[in-house]
Amino acid sequence: MAMPQAAMDATPAPAPSRTPLVEMRGIDVAFGGVKAVQGVSVDLYPGEVVGLVGGNGAGKSTLMRTLSGARPPDHGEIWVDGKPATIANPRDAKAYGIETIYQTLALADNLDAPANVFLGREITSRGQLDDDAMEDATRKVIGRLNPNFKNFTSPVMRLSGGQRQAVAIGRAIQFNARILIMDEPTAALGPAETAQVRDLIRQLKKEGLGIFLVSHDIHDVFDLSERISVMYHGRIVDTVNKDDVTTDEVLGMIILGKPPTKLTEEEKAALHA
Amino acid sequence: MALSESTGQATIEGRPASPIRRAVDRIGTALAPIRSRFTLLGVDTRLIGMIVALAIIWLAFNIAGHGSFITARNLWNLSVQSASIAIMATGMVLIIVSRNIDLSVGSMLGFIGYTMAMLQAIWIPQVFGAQPQPWIWIVTLLVGIGLGALIGGFQGFIVAYGGVPSFIVTLGGLLVWRGLIFRYAQGQTIAPLDQTFQLLGGGTQGTHVGALGDIGSWVLGAIACVAIVASLIFTRRRKRRYGFPTRPLWAEFVVGAVACAVALGAVFVAISYPLPPNVATAVANEQGIPVPPGGFPTGVAIPVLVLIIVGIVVTFLATRRQFGRYVYAIGGNPDAAALGGINVRWTILKTFSLMGILAAISAAVSTARLNSAVTGLGTQNELDVISAAVIGGTSFAGGIGTIPGAILGAVVMQSLRSGMSLLLVDSPTQDIVVGVVLVGAVGLDTLIRRRAG
Description:
The complex is a heterodimer. Chain A is about 35% helix and about 25% strand. Chain A has helices spanning about 1-10, 60-65, 90-95, 115, 130-145, 160-175, 190-205, 220-225, 245-255, 265-270; strands at about 20-30, 35-45, 50-55, 75-80, 85, 100, 125, 130, 180-185, 210-215, 225-230, 235-240. By secondary structure, chain B is mainly α. Chain B contains 18 helices and two strands. The chains are: A alpha/beta, B mainly alpha.
């Protein structure tokens, strides 16, 4: 239990007047006998980006899947706006304003962009799908992300990687999300599209959304986040203010699973070699 | 020997790419301008391709049969024979689109058909006396539909909530429902059926004809034309209101004119088929008039009317309701559907329940046509229904398939069988041809689709 204790000690004390948008407390997730996430606590404030980093299999995506309702936790609590929240499925999460952009994008490739943006939340009038209203809204929300996006009637399998990403992001911001989970949002994108996504994140932050940014790209995380939570083998190593650490120190935490203060001289030497 | 040598040389000289692939590429290139023209029309090119294929089949049989295929009589019979399979194929599309399969439709049809026959021939008369009741046909039909919804839904429940693969569940269903028929009446044939009920089969019962006649058929054609034009106008208006691109006005007129011509042409064919002489005489005697020189027009058969209604309703469910959107989303990406908050299990259950309802409707049509229920009713129908859906462009990979395509697929299958029967081709040979066509059609479609991307 040493590490979660360390994590709590190191968490910067938030201003007392502000309530966190999300608090996840003592989250456990196990797949059969494998403990993917153990006793993890993280929080998120309005207008803040929290970077979630760690190696493959560190439990980042699994942790976020509990928040998005895809896989409810075995133990632990999730609080939204300072109240305990019950998130048993994706629908519950969306009701709390929690939207997720999955690494796989989670698009139905055979459907067009409007159908994907409104998947599960279709606009209907008199019990019928209002495809025109959905296309209209989709044109507006995706136009905000990518003005060059024109193809609203083809199945999304015909679209480029960046356009597909735009559809997935459009779905997340269409419904006035307050909490956004972005799982590797730039992994499949070219430089120009990556820049667009970064601009979008900054803009959404300004609008007061809280964003969990899961990424392998340490530069993305340093560029966009206020705080960084490092995971290692299903546990939180530490949550640090971005300004208090260097990228090397964060890399050290990702690789060795220890906060910089607890590294031995030998480990430090190995890291810098 | 010479043949194999020459092909051997061609393989050595040419690329290792298969000759079929190259032929398809060449066809694709040749058709490109036509394809782009149709794209401008905003019409499904696959559907056009199927209609062209159907036209070729009809013409070929007509030439081979010295004009015996394209006659009002044969086309009318073709429409009635296709109806039962086509009704079920509309539901099979949704089952296959959501990455499932239903092998039990033939047995469900048999079981439900047998139950409906028992109800009207034995159970209701036992309670209410042998006097025919005017409500028997509708009560029977409703009970059958309810039973279909129930047993289809039961199978769907095991698939969706029990997690048993649909192939296994419905394979079990195929055996169970067929076996249960024998529990009813030790394999007796149940007959005769209620007089009104029989009209659902398109046959004649005394002076009652299971078809719409000339006035009814023209009214149906007129309704179809009004509906086509109205839908074109409303769609265009809506798109205009949102400022979306619309197709050119000439394209709207072409689409509307062609669709109306097809509808009215079908009506014309149906009324060109006169009632059989003995029925015509009976009708003439009843009305106290002589039989007109051309006979009495038969008109659109009731089973075809049922198919049209089913086709419209299922198309509406598939394209205009959330249910249909979810079915296609599940087929495209089940994980994405679940993450989108869709109740995947409930949706799957509903597709199977709908399939049961459609099997019940087909059962009514089939038993009514035979005026009896036999234990073998609907045997191997599952193969025809699945073939119809697949020939109609439904993909086993899930997420792709249309209801009009499946109906056309059923007509293509029935055309092959009926045409070969006219040419006195024996039944095993028919099976061979249909089997080859099934695999060939899907293979060609896969190649074209891969190329088009």
